[in-house]
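Before relying on records like the one below, remember that each one covers exactly one chain. Contacts with other chains, cofactors or solvent are not represented anywhere in the record.
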Amino acid sequence: MMKSMIQPPSSAGAAGAPPASRPETPAPLPSRSVDIFDIKQYFHVILKRIWLVALCFFVSVGVTMVFALQEEPVYRARATLLLSQGLPLPAILRQEEMQLRGEYLATQQLILQSGMLKERAKERLARAGEKQGVYDELRAFQVSETSFIAIEAEGPDPLYASAFVNALAEEYLDFKAEERMDTSQATVISLTQQANRLLEELKRAEARMVAFEKDNSVVALQDRGNVAASLMAELSRRASTYRMERMLLESQRPLLTGASDDIILNTLAWPSAAALRPASAPPAGAGEDKAAVAEGAEPAAERPERVLEWGVVERPGWSDLKRERARLEAQLAQYREKFKDEHPAIRQTLDDLAKNQQALDVEVQFAMSQFNAHLESLTLQEQATRRVEKDWEADAIDSTRKAQEYRALQRNAERLQGLYDLVFNRLKEIDVSIGIEPETERIMERAKPPTSPITTRKVQSIVIAALVGLGIGLALVFGLETIDDSLKYPEEVTKWLNLPFLGVVPTAKWDPQDLRTHVLANIDQKSVLAESYRNLRSAFLFSGASDRVRTLLMTSAVPQEGKTTTCLNLAVSLAQVGQRVLIVDGDLRRGELHKFFGLEGGRGLSDVLVGQAKPDAVIQRTGLPNLDFVATGPLPPNAAEIVLRPEMNSFLDYARRTYDRVVFDCPPVMAVSEAVILASLVDAVIFVVWAGQTSRKLSGLAIQLLRERGSHLLGCVLNNLEFGRVGYYYYSTYYGYYDYESGYSGSGTRPGAAAAAANGGYRKSR
């Protein structure tokens, strides 16, 4: 924001350039020139409020000097310590674990500056009979990147400062020696206590192991567990075999219910020994079964897949009956071929067949009863095997539990033994290394009483105060410049107001007592001020819209912006080129334009608007060629209402017919309501802004009001611009090239009054 507020103007914003027609873009300045302008801009910002920078500077330096002069002389004493490594420990005695130590030298500096060590140093001085004193500051710091640490103390008493520094260094050496001794003793005590505790725990653990071995026969515990496991496996296999046989027999029961007697007997019959033995195998006997078992194979009777081949009854009994039955049936068939059914041989044969059937039925019933009995036998054998298996399972679980308890006791004893060995070995290492110092500290240079006080502190304080004062002053200056939203440069007119720039009017040293000296005709024609009004006239005439503009109005956002003087001198400059010009004082509330010509203001525009006079009757001669004047007349109480009357349009029509240009001096837009009314009735409006004074927000609001009421804004004039201001210094340079004066000094009034006079010489009314 600061950059945008103090940018240097472009050459397109120079007075006299045609604002309405777009000018040619000027060639950009070299970068070095732009940088110089930027530096000048910042310099001017500082110069404009240099009093604020000076005030902050002198206040800061003055306050610091007062306090510095009141301070007592300060002396500085210094001692130096050397911190180095002692005899290194053997590798076997070094601690393997990582220690969080931080930066060693930084830690020692904090120890030296600690309150505990300071108190010990004071007590040491008291024991030595030294007189007590005070010190202002104590510092401990590393010397460059070495292993030296410097101790400095500052105070009003040089003897006490040096004695205190030496006492602090000696107390530091004592503290380090005590620290190493205390650490070693504390470590030995702690490790001894831990070793005794671990030894007691180890003894108790070994006693528990011996008692457990005695109560549970640990030697045979593992064998018992293995036997139980093998027996459980055998019992589980047998139970599975019985269960498989039982399930196979149970699956046969529904199939045997509807089968014939022959199928039942054949299904439940035992096979012959020849059928079970391979053709090349020796005769079946006890030796075969023993050999099969010895080779690890199951006997045929114990394999589940051979259960259906064994049956539950022997074959010889019912097989003879079946052969007898077949014989009888064959015999019966032969008899029937020879005899009739009543023949005794046939009847005898039928009786024999009936007896044979009864015998077979008895065999079937016996086979079924044997089948059911064998099925129940398998169920009982399976249950018995499962029960014995559970008994052995409990024994195996108990053996496993005891084995685990014994192993836990062993692990606990081994852990305690390992901890005890570690602590005991560490204790022996500390006993060996207790006399070896890994670090050494010694005093390299003792403090001597300083002979002269330090003066750099006062000089340094004053320099710092001066810099702080300058910094605060510059910060305030640029802060005020940043929050200043006034319009200062032509490019800001285009940027913030969106208006063409018509020209600048420099600051002039008006005579506030003689308003006639403000008229352009009475100003030195070679002055910068006169040339600026001629440039404004050129900008208006060559704007491209001047042919259509017969009635022109001058206004501003707020009072005291110099619009009356600008309006007056623009009208005079137009009259000087031969145009007939009528200047009208349109400020019906506080019009004072007649004072510049020495004319009366009691009769004028208000008389025409209320119908009490004709336009030609109120026109006055100014004494200047081609320039006439209409005053305000009696100031009406309702200025806004009479401006809206038809007589205003009639007056404008008369003025357009009679004169080449009609220039109205209008009150500020933000002050009165008739300003926007008059602006909407004329052909064009020129907006006047006091450079560096008028707020761009108020100016923007005024321009918005004018545009909303239908006013045609021709451009903006930057009034009361100081050509000596950095960034516009080249204006005075260019004018000085033609021996133009930089201002008009009618009576040599002070610059403060010049700003008021530049507003038309009526600060209290405009």
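Residues 1-34, 91-101, 272-309, 726-766 have pLDDT under 50 and may be disordered.
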